[in-house]
Amino acid sequence: MADVVVTCNQLITGIPREKRFFKRFIAIEQNKILKVGEGDGQDYIDDATTVISLKSDEIFIPGFIDLHIHGAHGADVMDGTEEAVQTMTANLPAEGTTSFLATTITMAPQAINRAIENAVSAEKLDGQAEVIGIHIEGPFINESKKGAQPLKYIMEPSFSLLNEWFKTGKGMIKQMTYAPELSQGVEFTRFMQENGINPSVGHSDADYRTIVAAVEAGANQVTHMFNGMSGVHHREPGVAGSALLIDELDIELIVDGIHIHPEMVKLAWKTKGTDRCLLITDSMRAKGFPDGNYELGGQAVTVEDNKATLTSDGTLAGSVLKMNDAVANMLAFTGCSLEDAIQMASYNPARKAGVLDRKGSIEEGKDADFTVVNKNGEITLTFCRGKEAFRKEGR
User: pTM of the predicted model, to two decimals?
Assistant: First the structure.
């Protein structure tokens, strides 16, 4: 018998090229998906089973995985506190996110180390999103493409420093954003790849030749596509052009209509294809809060009309984007199917984070991480590892 059985009219598994299913049940036992099948699952129900019947317009989908998120609801990974991480894990299920990479920003090395240590020790609480790893963004980036990364802490690649973070990270560091054109950049790329980290090119002014060399050394991703990088030019492809041309590179997309023009989102998706796109938020602590004044990496940030910028010069400073809105915007901007958008928000990120064996799709034996979306793109219900994490008011 199952602990929970959910029945639904529509199910999207998240598995590439798999179409949606109709009139299915999902049985959950001990935080795992026990069975996915046709009908109402009566064979898995007894008096102790919780039965949830979804409405006709609700769609059962895998939980979202955010590979690039700095903060939300007043908390930031760089706060380096247990309370900050738990604020994020408690609130992210409301947007359908069930796991994420805790993302740092360019700061003093000891502050980054403290944030890594804190993320590693984060307790996995029932009914909350899970920290499945760490994304180190900077400090080994190009000053000319720093964006909202604090200039004073930017430095050349340091093997010794990264080794120190490896030890602190205890295998949790999954991704690093860096600029391969810096000193020993190609060797640094190979070093990351050999140590199980996805080298992701970002905040970079590299040319095509450098990107090719980095890819040959193991680079496999580009951070927040079109932002913080050299753009496409007819005499030099730059990082953006290289990302579109080179098949081995996956691309992160902030689909908020601010960081990338909708037609450029469409161009990127049509060029790279669903399998190579990763929906992210790159959100900062103001997400979930009203417009006002906030902070990112010790810098003042102003949020107005869902746009976060450095108060000093108007530079974009992350986002306040929610993952369910990223999915809805992807549909609107590109005309892709909901199945495609879910793959880009769940399955692809799980593959990149190395957790596809237990997350990213609705399959038997995987963690019972799922969310439910209605026809308006609203999240109505989210479970994290088999426990209810969010229920829309009035549902």
Answer: 0.98
